[in-house]
Amino acid sequence: MDKKVVFITGASRGIGRATAEKFVKEGWQVAGFYTEKAVAESEGIKYYQVDVADWDSIKRGFGQAYEHFRRIDCLVNCAGIYGYKTLAQYDIETMEKVIGVNEMGTYLTGKWAAEKMVKGSMVFITSTAAQAGSSDPVYAGTKAAVQGFVKSMAKELAPNIRVNSVAPGVTNSGMTKQMNQERLAQLIEMSLLKKIARPEDIANGIYFLASDEASHITGACLDINGGYVLR
């Protein structure tokens, strides 16, 4: 039987990279997508450049991957950016960029995958910011929109395609490294487990939702936040 294929955006670093490595470990083939900085390919992962906020770029990059692998069994959307600003600090250009990547990127990659997939799963990344608010309201707003999209797509694509999300808390990734360290320490203290997540912790949850182990789960959000938000 041919290996299953997963398309992963934001796969060059952080949660996306850890997720790509997890799928490879589990025997999948990975089409990884990056935005700007070229990535050296590794065993089991073939990389393509894509701007997830641009439909033509998605059609080109995803199309190249599909031409190579000839199938897509799962989409994982890890691409995302954080503004690190209050609403008053945002200029319109930065606001549009955050919305473009986090929100439109979700819609457009989901649209492309839905047109190609016959059966499988999709996993989108939201955030505790969507559940509890954030000092960056634009980022929080985009992630809340993702959750509404996930529930709607779960209904639209059932019964053949499952659609779920993962809501990470503070994670040791590129976004976290740019945070104010005092604020970071506060967030860690507010979590019940008193620690920061590893990208691998989030990747494990993503893979679970994509796998047959989660065959009866759709429209759900898996919280991986160390107890920072309890619902």
UniProtKB/TrEMBL annotation:
One of its GO terms (biological process) is fatty acid elongation. It comes from the Bacteria. Transmembrane segments: none annotated. One of its GO terms (molecular function) is oxidoreductase activity, acting on the CH-OH group of donors, NAD or NADP as acceptor. InterPro entries: NAD(P)-bd_dom_sf, SDR_fam. Belongs to the short-chain dehydrogenases/reductases (SDR) family. This is 3-oxoacyl-ACP reductase. It comes from Candidatus Amesbacteria bacterium RIFCSPHIGHO2_12_FULL_48_14.
